[in-house]
Amino acid sequence: MKAAITLTRILVGLLFIFSGLVKANDPLGLSYKMQEFFEVWNWGGFDNLTLPLSVLMNAFEIIAGFALLLGWRNRLFSWLLLLLIVFFTFLTGYTYITGMPKNCGCFGDCLPISSQTSFLKDAALTLMITFLLWKRYEIRPLLPAKTGSFLMLLIIAGSFGFQWYTLHNLPMVDCLPFKTGNNIMEKRKVPADAIPDSFAIRFVYTKSGKTFEFSPLELPADLNTYTFVSRKDKLIRKGNAEPAIKGFDLKGASEADSTQQVLSLPYAILIFTENFSVPLRNWENAFARVYETARTKNIAVYLISGQPDKARTEMAATIFADLPVFTCDNTTIRSASRANPTLYLLKEGTVLGKWALPGFGKAEKMIAGLTVPAVPPVPLTIDSLPH
């Protein structure tokens, strides 16, 4: 029995630490997933709480996992883990049954798993944690009380400090389709080996007041005696014929699409700001240095925002007054910019680098070292220019 308790402790503890660290690498990802749940449940008024909840939940998973491994405050954390896993099991079960949202985000974007797998994982963890709660009096701390408490204080500080860093400097491990090295144009295409959705065709007919459904191979010989009602295409297997990047369509005020033009340039700089919750004055000076360096290199610079009109107004009295402004799908902006703002350097649509505000100085140095062809930027549609 002792071996079973130890093995279960190690498995559960490591799973919670891994789950917490993967999501702590990108707290905004879990925050957006929470917003999807709130949208499904019509709880839109709680959207402002999702980021603090995300940070707290990620930290708790890491802290609870280490506490279980060390046997620190075991009775308390056994109960807390059971409450947490019951909550997780409800969420994953809801997603599995209803299909909304698409997945629970249990391991973030780095390890996407199906809703069914998520639910089965949490159901198994519920059984294991219940077993540990039952045997909690047989679990002994691995370290002396003071040493264990000091180590746990370091773990608590680290779990929050790591998330502070990733929120201000982008995820340390980038698992998103906009990561450095990816070509945005290629990621907008459906993969060549993608599996399309499979449908079963069913024809609906009536005869003598009764309704019948037939597949194309089941049509009766006396079909002319039936009355056609409708055709149904029933999804029998969901494929994966979707591009990694969807909604990246750069449009100005008149909705003209300039995506191809921008992604075809020898070099281009994009700055993403979903909104101006971080005021322009906070990043104006750092961006100005990047902007001026880019101009000396004849590199085109574009701003992409979910609030294009406000962007033009904010920049009107700055050196960015002539900066072309685009918008695109807001979910895509969130995927591309895990920090507000986020700066990209592209080479013919390939991401050479991406930086949050603390990294703008590195971006400036990288741009200054580029050898750029002496070719003027491709002119864009007039609607992208400031009004």
Helicity, as a percent range: 40-55%
User: Strand tally, please?
Assistant: 8
Strand content is 5-15%
Poorly predicted segments: none
Taken in chain order, the helices and strands follow as HHHHHHHEEEHEHEHEHEEH
* Main sheet record: 5 strands, mixed
What is Rg? 27 Å
Number of helices: 12
Q: Please state how the strands of the largest beta sheet are arranged side by side.
A: 6-5-4-7-8
Structure, explained:
Strands 6-5-4-7-8 form a five-stranded mixed beta sheet, sandwiched between helices. A three-stranded antiparallel beta sheet has the order 2-1-3, with no helix packed on it. The chain folds into three domains: 2-169, no CATH class; 198-237, no CATH class; 259-384, Glutaredoxin (3-Layer(aba) Sandwich). Helices cover 46% and strands 14% of the residues. The chain has twelve helices and eight strands. Strand 1 and strand 2 (210-214) form a beta hairpin. With 387 residues, the chain is of the alpha/beta class. The mean pLDDT is 88. Helix 4 (74-98) runs antiparallel to helix 5.
